[in-house]
(wild Malaysian banana) hypothetical protein
Amino acid sequence: MGRLGLVMCDAAMSFMWVWAGALVKLLVYDALGLGHRPGGEALKMALVVGYMFLFAWLGHVTRGGAYNPLTVLSYAFSGGPEGFLFTALGRIPAQVIGSATGVRFIKQTFPSIGHGPRLSIDIHRGAWTEGFLTFMIVMASLMLKKKDPGSFFMKTWISSIFKLALNVLGSDLTGGIMNPASAFAWAYARGDHITLDQLIVYWFAPIQATLLAVWTFGLLTEPKSKVQKAEENKVKSE
């Protein structure tokens, strides 16, 4: 897939991602009326894991399509400047546009759907929360990509459960969204997309955390130098 195709794929997946979350909410809370009852929460989690598998499969068949700027940034930070520029100037804007378009159609179709994630704590704790959650999910994604537990199913299962757990952990504080494009889309629909809270908590902190996670992962998995390998071989031979 060429670069233009990848950009279009990112926009489409971002559009579908916000719709998937909205449809789950409509089914559990409105259509079935389960609300926050245990059965409703269990069904919601099962559906979330289900559509995470769907999007993981879409990313696989499109050879890199993504709906989250943090996903493409984590790989761009590991590459050269050319890849970073393509991500920053092409893929991320496409994801933002796709998410914003999706939310716009959601609000037009289902006006009572809600307002998306909101910050319920002060800006500093919000930034730390989104930063921590982002750091953890990026580290997990990089480890799964490198280690490969053995199959697409197992890798996706671990990633989905981990993402869901982190989302629940941060849901009452920042929404636990860990996706700047989706956060921007809902904020744009509300008209508060250029506030300091939005920029620091949902953009600046997650991007910094992604960079820190990539750096930490590289430090922990740094390949052994020739000198270290020579010393190890010498010890083994003795």
Observations:
- Residues 234-238 have pLDDT under 50 and may be disordered.
- The CA atoms of residues 7 and 91 lie 5 Å apart.
- The chain has one domain: 3-224.
- The first helix runs from residue 3 to 31.
